[in-house]
């Protein structure tokens, strides 16, 4: 009996090893099955599930090759660090350019000008920042101004730990800058009042949504547009509604092939095709269905009643790019820390 | 945990071999990873290091982390003994189940514990609604989460000791005219002290490094409810590895001092009461 057990386990072990070996790809152009790892951030889970299925079909028709795609999700910064520390991602699809810049700076796994390689700043889909309020808007919240009223409680995640929260912060800042004509003291005062109304700083965007929806804390949630629509879908629009502020920010979650990893694994061709497919009609449709704003004008027009027309600023024009925005606002000693300095 | 009690001639050979193995094993598992923390810190220069660890926000987080961990460990030391007492001294239906429940906080992923506790104690939660002050998103909430995750340590440390106390000792003390209280204070409690201290130390150390369950219930407000592990995470989020390890190094040093003190206490009480 014991001998039999040992024999079986040996056979199994060899079987697994052999299995691992047979999956090794031998460069591009072969029709051997290939595996991609897409390292992404939290709210894209549903989007990429659907997109991966479509791409697998498309690639089989295109090249006859079987491709399987592994997904990894988590906080954008944490995911970036995992890639730096050696997680072998063929492609990264993160919440902000800053996290992919960090991969270039820390490990040189891709080129410095990675963001120029694909159209539209390497962001095939965009999103923006909106408000989620309780049905019928009892506190009558229409714009950023209403968030600093004394009796309004705001929920937004912590910009120190959440990519989404940084977009929220910058959107509010852009509004204040326009309102006070770039008077820095007044802008900071506005931000201070806003964050004084924040009761809980969750560490991630999903956590903030949970605090607002499940625990019923706060009057307004500042959220990703796609996250807000998902909440409506999940909890019904008889409980919550979306308010579009007068100004928001164009959130651009970029995508990139991690060159060194893809070259090593021999997956470069399929990895590039994978990202390009995001720009195709099929890819853009899937993005729109998952409440991300498609870049393609035609498809955006098709979904226009879903995406309100909001006046949006961009990080590059208003804040001088992500690197600068991160240094000015979110690194230790930046404006976000300033807001919380005890007087 | 009660080493150094017996100063007899060693009867079993192989001290050199086992000691060598112990040192090697501890080095690989504990010392090398920990020394990486300090190596990382040394690369930043003393001034930066000092500036990082004396920042008001970081100092506030140290205070919160250490105080809440100590409070939670203390509460666990008191109630853990109570639970251990009930589990060892009485027979009642469902005892096995209750005994198994004690270990649950170990088995539960910390994030699940955090979300569950927050749901219970938030202002509109099942328990939170009966209080006219906030529990979740305040230091009280943090302490509750830490009590939850540290409970098994004390119970599991004290239980075997209680089971092994000889009935004869208590009978002797009773026959010499001591009442139940005196018997507990003079006979039973001294026997338990080393185990309680160990449980306290383990519960405290575990509470200090706890991140997963606390971030959900803390509210993470700067200067009010930011724990040190969260500060470390925010530094990592800025790709500031050195700053993160600096904060971690300070936590390690303070923790080591506290644990070392507890160990000395243990050794001292063990010597004093065992009369060996």
TrEMBL record, chain A:
Keywords: Periplasm, Signal, Transport. It is found in: Periplasm. GO terms for cellular component: periplasmic space. GO terms for biological process: sulfate transmembrane transport. InterPro entries: Sulphate/thiosulphate_BS, Thiosulph/SO4-bd. It holds the Pfam family SBP_bac_11. GO terms for molecular function: molecular carrier activity; sulfur compound binding. Residues 1-18 form the signal peptide. Belongs to the prokaryotic sulfate-binding protein family. NCBIfam families: 3a0106s03, PRK10752.1, PRK10852.1. This is Sulfate ABC transporter substrate-binding protein.
